[in-house]
Amino acid sequence: MPSNKKASVFTHGKKLSDGDMYIITIIDLEPAGLLVKAYNQSSNAEYTLSPTEGQIKDAGLSRSENDLTKLADSIDIVTKDSRTFISSTLPSIKDLKVIPSGPAVSTFISSTVVGSETLPSLLTTALSELCKVKPAGLDAVKWLGEWLLANNPNQPHVEESEA
């Protein structure tokens, strides 16, 4: 088998908190980390979790069978805000980030606070400033990016002293 192909390094059957049996499969994606899959045959549902190398190290895990068993045993099914996913009870293993879709995108954007204002307010100011300058073509994208970097209230400005 070519070295760039990855195979399951661990498979484990487990009943999760929803009462269903799942096949927990762990795939080695070194150097990126591990891929944990939980497959429920009765519902044909599959959930994934991708702990990074840093998270694996912080959890004190290696790729030994005992540590992979510990990781598999820490997996459970969670439902939060009508979204079902798998999570690890190991504190260093972080849940997948939620990527909003549909109406949740509008809610996310309008509720995102940037400094003392909302993201739409900051973007309105940025686009107004862009209209005043009127750069052409891709220069407009570059100018907008630089303006957002220079005027990001969440990014502290560091004054460097001249030595």
From TrEMBL:
Classification via InterPro entries: Dpy-30_motif
Q: CDD domains per the record?
A: DD_NDKH5-like
Concerning Pfam families, the annotation shows: Dpy-30
The name this protein carries in UniProt is: Uncharacterized protein
